[in-house]
Amino acid sequence: MGFSYQKFLIAREDTLWQLPAAKFQRMLRDPQNHCLIAFAGQRVRTADVVVELVAREPVRVVRTTFSILTFDTEGHLDPEAFEKQQFALAESVVAPVLPASADDRHQPVVDASARFIAQGGQWIPSRDLARVIDEAALGQRQCARLR
């Protein structure tokens, strides 16, 4: 048994593009030299899918998360926006379980900025699109692969 990780970009017309993890890492580390012209000037929906493998064959989707990537007008990924969203998401998950300080409990205003940033970097697919993403991740549906 093992696991596979796959990232998909979802174009405006719900077309799926598989983005290799190595390409995504290059885009994060060196956005000026690794761009995707097809997504220039867009906020693009993504799906990150973890698939369980048995004898190297996909058997089920274990977890899927949905986020949004921001590209500039030349197709360069905005790694700062991505990082900000990821940290805000982590903070929004961890904050409810951390004890509040005495000062925080007496504040009349709640700082929800992390929650708003995290929500701006997430989306929820339709049931049909979620099924298409699962099928692509399990190798039951063809989709183009970005290079």
N to C succession of SSEs: EEHEEHHHHE
Q: Which blocks of ≥5 consecutive residues have pLDDT under 50?
A: none
Characterize the overall form.
globular
Q: How much of the residues is beta strand, in percent?
A: 25-35%
Distance between the termini: 28 Å
What does it look like?
This protein is α+β, with helices and mostly antiparallel strands. The chain has a domain at 2-78 and 122-145. Helix content is 33%, strand content 28%. It has 5 helices and 5 strands. The chain has helices at residues 21-29, 79-94, 102-105, 113-120, 127-137, and strands at 2-10, 16-19, 43-54, 57-70, 144-145. Strands 4-3-1-2-5 form a 5-stranded mixed β-sheet, sandwiched between helices. α2 (79-94) packs across α4 (113-120). The two termini are 28 Å apart. The model has no long low-confidence stretch (mean pLDDT 86).
Concise summary:
This protein has 147 residues and is α+β, with helices and mostly antiparallel strands.
What attributes characterize this protein structure?
147 residues, single chain, alpha+beta, five-stranded mixed beta sheet, 33% helix, 28% strand
